[in-house]
Amino acid sequence: MSEVRVRFAPSPTGYLHIGGARTALYNYLFAKATKGTFVLRIEDTDLERSTKEFEALQILDLKWLGLEYDEGPDKPGKYGPYRQSERLEIYQKYALQLIEQGKAFYCFCSEEELEAMKEKATREGRPPHYEGKWRNPEFFEEAAARLAAGEKPSIRFRAPNKPYVLNDHVRGRVVYPENMVGDFVIVRSSGLPVYNYCCVVDDVEMKITHVIRGEDHLSNTVRQLMIYEALSATPPEFAHVSLLIGQDRQKLSKRHGATAVVNYKEESYLPGAALNYLCLLGWSHPEEKDIFTKEELIPFFNLERFSKSPAIYDIEKFKWVNGQHLKLMNESELRNQTEKFIEKDHLYWAQSDEWKTNAFKLFKDSMLFFNDFARVVQENVFQIDESFDDKAKEILAMPTTKDLATHWNAELNLISSSDKFLSQANFQKIFDKIKTALQLKGKPLFMGTRLSLTGKDHGPELKDLIPLTPVDVMKKRCQKILSFSAQ
Q1: Could you give the count of Cα atoms lying within 13 Å of 4 in the half-sphere of its Cβ?
Q2: Do domains 1-71+242-328 and 384-485 have the same CATH topology?
Q3: Is the pLDDT of residue 141 over 70?
Q4: How many whole angstroms separate alpha carbon 28 and alpha carbon 25?
Q5: Which class is 1-71+242-328 in CATH?
Q6: 4 with 34: CB under 8 angstroms?
Q7: pLDDT for 1 beyond 60
Q8: Catalytic residue selected from 254, 340, 344, 441
Q9: 206: left (phi > 0), else alpha (psi -120 to 50), else beta?
Q10: 38-90, pLDDT tens digit by residue?
Q11: N or C terminus: fewer CB in 10 A for the chain?
């Protein structure tokens, strides 16, 4: 097999969509797995909507994800330029070549004429294909005269009336029947080429060997196969991957959550986690792994493990994957990154280094994101909840819970005001004392103690949590239990 060359070709008309990022990822992985070349091509012929700002932002997002391309606008190779707006002369050259060979023709039809053709075909139950006079050789002289007079025609491709077959790596054998499309525009009257045309010209010129893209492009492929044939070029191999859909099985949109890569970057998702999750949306690891790094994945990646079924985007699974990648980080690095997300007025910063180290060890596994840590610490260590959930109310209803809160409140009040925290040893000593005094054991003892001291019915091991919790906070929690029981 010749050197693999793949491309990601976004339009700079908005932020990089996660669906586009997934396409870029698959192309990147295939290039790396085959020691090929990954090309970034900017499809900016939509001059009204394309901007340099969006191009720059999309490139930043690709680099944040770690999808470094080998050739592109800022990494020129021998097949540039890499912006379609800078390749107009190339498209014009090929269009004139197709006209000279009788495979394309100038069309001077007005919008009104085209609409009338469409309406007539619909009334007669026929496909609304182009039937204008300009496809007929007897009108070529008139076309040349109008062209010489300065009129601006479009250029239409003369679509062959025969079936086409695509052997797709994901979809399998796809048959496009004859007469599926009529003569279609390849260059607008403005001089700008259309997508299906310039896409093929670029792939031919840039020696692209494989095209990996979303299945929404499957309907475009028949036109592209026609153009490859007309240019006497061998088409690349195609892999049309499944579409992303929400859990309601509708096309992914903002109602399913953020759809732009930049949103996930702002929400402190890890780029490695984003790549991990996006890869799983339509592709499966041969060892059935859910968690892996980009580097671990490259040796296994191929075009044979794509699924035909739509990929369901699950934001909760995405969050879980992010949490798993946090666990893969070196503890020192994880703590350093996490502390960047703790507000300067958070009580965390007022504690000793030993306290902070112990708090990090206790709560780090509760994090899905860097900014979870400060919230989890606040909720478990410093916060006095305003109300109790249903499970806590069940514990409150136990007659022994009030007794436990009374005893704990009395014992905490005996602690010197200079002692802000209760050591693990002293906690165990008081616990054993109260256990003996009340003759309690099992669930009433442990659940009642937890609720009295933490205000919650679940959480970390008490022997680890209590030494981090200020005595004053535990007193207030006990008093809240007693106040609630008195109602």
Answers
A1: 19
A2: no
A3: yes
A4: 5
A5: alpha beta
A6: yes
A7: no
A8: 254
A9: alpha
A10: 999 999 998 889 999 999 999 999 999 999 999 999 999 999 999 999 999 99
A11: C
